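Exam revision sheet. Question 4 asks you to relate a sequence to its structure. Input first:
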Amino acid sequence: MIIPGLMQDLEVSREVDFGYYVTDGTDEVLLPTNEIIGEIDINEAVHVFIYHDHQGRLISTMKTPHITLDTYEWVDVVEVREDLGVFINIGLTKDILVSKDDLPLFEEVWPDIGDKLYCSLKQDKNGRLLGKLATDPVMRDISVSATREAFNRNVKGVVFRTVKVGTYMYTDEKFIGFIHESQRSTEPRLGQRIEGRIIDIKEDGTVNISLLPRKHEALDEDSTVILDYMETRGGAMPFWDKSNPEDIEARFNMSKGAFKRALGKLMKDNKVYQEEGWTYFTTRK
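Answer key, structure tokens:
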């Protein structure tokens, strides 16, 4: 039986102007000239992959795809269609659709071009091939358990699942990591490569990850925001540690507490000083 989505051993049955036909003894399928690797002869057994071409015709290729019905691999997103979903490159002349029905509800977290998805293939009711996103059990099978030594380590990886309360990622160390919505400033896309730090090791070997900067990193970032703003105003700004919290939030997109901590650090480092409701560069003294 000739099955789309699998590598199969078929026999070369006859030659035509545009390639050969291969058969399982009952059915035939075209092996186009541009899908042949090396030389083949009539009655020879060839190892081919079966799929549908752009016209929906069943064809075969001697090229090995990145994924099949029973194998998974990381594949690249090459096109995004709001009406259909996203297309992935599986190493063939035709890209494969991951249906929007299998993607997150909100398009804002759909994969973008260049993102990676861990996929295999599946058939729709008409036998056409679609990309199949890996489930949690599949990701667990390729993961390893984290040890206590991984605590507070910076890690990079790819988002493989998004849920209402957070994000799951697969790290370069092969850890399964969960990012609670409180531990991120924006929601990452499915398939996006991200970086965070491990904030907890769970009993099952998975980890909790934060995408937020460490406190000293956030302080440095907030201080830079303040300095950059003062630079645009010639080294002075009408804000200080007693400014209205709403005004601070509107101008700097940070809480008053974060603003005061950053401002305090700048004063401690002798970079700024305050006077009558204003903050100035110390170089202006």
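Marking note for examiners. The CA atoms of residues 4 and 51 lie 5 Å apart.
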